[in-house]
From TrEMBL:
Pathway: Amino-acid biosynthesis; L-histidine biosynthesis; L-histidine from 5-phospho-alpha-D-ribose 1-diphosphate: step 6/9
GO cellular component: cytoplasm
Protein name per the record: Imidazoleglycerol-phosphate dehydratase
Annotated family: Belongs to the imidazoleglycerol-phosphate dehydratase family.
Catalysed transformations (reactions): D-erythro-1-(imidazol-4-yl)glycerol 3-phosphate = 3-(imidazol-4-yl)-2-oxopropyl phosphate + H2O
Source organism (scientific name): Neisseria flavescens NRL30031/H210
Gene designation per UniProt: hisB
């Protein structure tokens, strides 16, 4: 492995740890990710050049400092560390699965466990689309847990979510990143989506509040979000974070999601009708359609993001 290859491998580890190229750029003090995108392309081009110098020392120091790594971290081979970490992670996931079963979360059916660790949050989501609505939630954000419980119960989805986040700053990273990991889990659990209904919708009232949620498990991420909350806080929870949650979920589950709060004066009621309706709509969308007989519910023959990318490239 030449220096450029080593630097590229370690650079990609930093991107994975940060959560995205944009978040890595932010952590290292860049206003946007363009410079790091160029660096990635340059390292890829130099991968076959034995004389390539890779990342210059000043930039390496900035990356290492931004991600709290020791000086010279980029110049070391971390493959053995990765193998050890993978073994530890496998053991931890097995323990998580056992704990999920003990909590009543079934591992039969479309069951997945997804973990995502960054400098801001450490999250594990276990999800079963063919569950009975059982849940165990430990996030440090009580009102979000109350909303996620609605999704599990009304969606008949077994859900186990644990998160340790930087709540000493605020709830933002925790709420957004839970949306991201839940989206990743949904995507994995759905697989190729053969035989599912694909579309789901629900209207849910709660006293004076009424919300409508419509879902298309299309393989194309898109969010239309129309909620005019009557106050900014529910308890200590910032209602603006709900939109961040749904953005994370949509972008990583690859679904199209329309959310409309049609009426409501009580912000708690507004939020609860949205999450109940989301759970009901998701339940409808992920259910198997016996008339589909294992077919993909699309004239394209696929609902994967790869087909969406190919379509975008043709335009």
């Amino acid at each position: 492995m030449n220096k450029a290859q080593l630097h590229l491998t370690n650079f990609l580890l930093l991107v994975e740890e940060a959560g995205s190229l944009t978040k890595l750029a932010r952590a290292c003090g860049y206003e946007n990710s363009a410079s790091l995108s160029q660096l990635k392309r340059r390292l890829e081009q130099q991968a076959g050049d034995e004389s390539a110098r890779g990342i210059r020392p000043s930039l390496a120091a900035k990356l290492e400092s931004g991600m709290h790594k020791r000086k010279g971290w980029l110049n070391r081979d971390h493959s053995k560390d990765q193998e050890k970490a993978a073994a530890v992670e496998a053991a931890r996931l097995e323990k998580q699965t056992v704990e999920a079963v003990e909590a009543g979360v079934s591992t039969e059916g479309r069951f997945v466990t997804v973990t995502r660790n960054t400098c801001e949050t450490q999250i594990t989501v276990s999800l079963n689309l063919d569950g009975t609505g059982k849940y165990r939630l430990d996030t440090g954000v009580p009102f979000l847990e109350h909303m996620l419980a609605q999704v599990a119960r009304h969606g008949l989805i077994d859900l186990d979510i644990t998160c340790k986040g930087d709540l000493h700053i605020d709830d933002h990273h925790t709420v957004e990143d839970i949306g991201i990991v839940l989206g990743q889990a949904l995507k994995q659990a759905l697989g190729n989506k053969a035989g599912i209904t694909r579309y789901g919708h629900a209207y849910v009232p709660l006293d004076e509040a009424l919300s409508r949620v419509v879902i298309d498990l299309s393989g194309r991420p898109g969010l239309v979000y129309n909620i005019d909350f009557t106050r900014a806080l529910i308890g200590r929870f910032d209602v603006d974070l709900f939109e961040e949650f749904f953005h994370g979920l949509v972008n990583h589950s690859m679904m199209t999601l329309h959310i409309d709060n049609l009426s409501g004066r009580n912000a708690h009621h507004q939020a609860e009708t949205v999450f109940k309706a989301f759970g009901r709509a998701l339940r409808m969308a992920v259910e198997y359609d016996p008339r589909m007989m294992g077919q993909t519910p699309s004239t394209k023959g696929t609902l994967s993001e790869e087909s969406v990318q190919e379509e975008a490239e043709r335009i």
